[in-house]
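Whether sequence alone determines local backbone shape is best considered at the level of individual chains. We regard such an encoding as a compact summary of how the chain folds. The sequence in question and its structure tokens are set out directly beneath this paragraph.
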Amino acid sequence: MIESQPIISVIVPVYNTGKNLRSCLDSVLAQTFTALEIILVDDGSDDMQTLEILNAYKSKDHRIRLIRKANGGQSSARNAGLAQACGNYVAFVDHDDVLNNHMYEILFEASEKGKVDVVECRYRSMPFSSMEMINLCHRPNTAHRRIQIDQEKDFLVDNIQIWKRICKKDFLIKNSISFADLQWEEDVLFSFKVLVCADSIRFIDAELYFHIQHENNTTNALGRNIFDGFKAHDKIQGFLEKKNCLKTYEEQYRGRVLKDLLFTLNIVHETLEQELFKEAH
């Protein structure tokens, strides 16, 4: 039965994604947890295929809401969806990823039973060519545990993916958590705020979200302002100082900064290699 009032608002920013959007939306619509509103935020797409898919899916399911806005980047699109979310919980999905059919049912049940504001699961990154190997219908083991961030601090370093969790909307509002106007590392800043502000979270030890990687991911990443990463790190430090917990999480903060710097250097290196190869051939 579909609830009249949505419980989870699923926010999907979209910008010229083309045909990859279909598999993403199909996996959201296939969720066994049906009390959803699916907010598609069109961030100024000018690709006709994307626009046609958005209109078709809006007509396909009454739970889908379509917001159109001028292009402002992913953070702006996510904030636009967040501002109009009506559900008790908020979730984010990247427009070319796919979800296990049971993901939101499992996360919601864990949140309600555990009385927590945030629930996360594992995820798997995989190439687009391997998508057909995913069994989205299988319901995995749903064992979960409570994590106290101040007792398991290293959880902060690697769990920065915003799309593998649900958060209570009131929790985000209470702690003034939204996305900074950044093109790079905005999800790291958002996640640090969520995890530090949460008294505790529930962690589902199962892969429920599938992050699809494309061949041009590296080029697209370099096309963004990688210097925004430094701004994000400064904002994280400022946030921790304001919360009077920089000393508590300083090691994890520095560990995250190091991982991001190494990742950025690797992107630059791979891109330069590609350019040199093109010039040589």
Q: What stands out?
A: Strands lie at 8-14, 36-43, 64-69, 89-92, 98-99, 118-127, 144-147, 165-168, 201-213. The two ends are 59 Å apart (CA to CA). The longest helix spans residues 246-280.
